[in-house]
Amino acid sequence: MPLVTIYPFMKRITYWPQLVLGLAFNWGALVGWTAVTGGMNWGVALPLYAAGVSWTLVYDTIYGHQDKRDDIAAGVKSTSLLFGDNTKAVLSVFSSSTIGLISVAGYMNGQGLPFYATVLGVGSAHLIWQLQKVDIHDPASCWRTFKSNTWFGGIILGAVLADMAYDRLYSDAAGSKEHSIQ
User: Fold this and answer.
1) What is the predicted pLDDT for the residue at 163?
2) What's the CA gap between 61 and 77, in Å, rounded?
3) pTM of the prediction?
């Protein structure tokens, strides 16, 4: 895939290498959707892909703040350098976009209340916590915050699983509804 090949060179060309990384990393949302469902539902997969790209901009910009002194010395670029002291404000927009786009994908897939309660409540709270907690001038803080994104991924997985469990319990009680990826 061309994006994977060109990503390592993007730091020499643009201040947005994290965008290229996001486009490359999150390609799996499109491929995975097709593998699981046997077809492509762009209404679900495209917002999911865009959410992943937006989330990558958040976590990799935080990660990049660890290396900014080295990046400056080496003459390479990053969103960490581009956003500078405005990083938290800019990442709040990308964090909001991530939550919004995950919610759109959920809506298009017919997700229910447990999904939205978890994504909008716990997922949003985690991203807010990250931006409040991280000290972009402290590499150790950036590393801890970057690593905490495994929790965000787990929260989103938990949202899907909670919704599926709720649907199964509800459909068993009602005797009619079955939950499936549409």
Assistant:
1) 96
2) 11
3) 0.90
